[in-house]
Amino acid sequence: MLPYEIKAYKELEHWKLKIQKKPSILDKLAKGMQSRLNNLIPEKVHNAITIAIEKMVKAVLFGAKYITKEAREDSSLQLREAFVKERIEFYRKTASAEGAVTGAGGFLLGLAEFPILIGIKMKLLFDIAALYGYDVKDYKERLYILHIFQLAFSSQQGRNQVFKRMSDWDSYVKSLPEDVEHFDWRTFQQEYRDYIDLAKMAQLIPVIGAAVGAIVNYKLINKLGETAMNCYRMRKVSPLKILNSGNKNLTRNR
């Protein structure tokens, strides 16, 4: 195993421990605070957000809107992740700037920002998938992207359930429906909405909206990028896979 692969493997194992934890008291308190804040927001706002998220999920499942890159082939993990980190940094800055502008624009512009941010997040995930060498034209690869999305933006209880499926993806993917019409996509939009309400609703508050929008968007993209990298490492990095990869390289060089 190469030094970079060893480093990546250790980081992956540490992330796995962090991602698989029981809901804490703070998690429960945050959920209660979220509920109280939600009660202050008009129902029509909640409905608009739900519709925006629903459209995003449908676009991923049925469309090719975000398919812009071909899968990267024959690259080392280190090179792939160098490009991935560049993309994460680019989208962090983009989302932060966008959040500051819409946060300063008041209630209506802040509300309009939700689908914009979703689009930025999904474009990042499609770019990352291609850089790791996965063909996002494949329906089941797009479902993997949605699982990454859900893993990053779910409650701890929901996160544990999603991680369990993703940790054995090769087996789980065989049970997925071939017809996307039969896939239960509603769970995705509900979990995402519940997760981000607390942070993003504060962006709609006058005066502090711009600062909140910039900071929150930066952190949300950072969290999504970290989650995506480790999710693809679960498929790319293991002692056995690295050994097999090394043997192939040796054979190719002979």
TrEMBL record:
UniProt cross-references to Pfam families, sorted A to Z: EcsC (PF12787)
Annotated InterPro entries: EcsC (IPR024787)
Protein known as: EcsC protein family protein
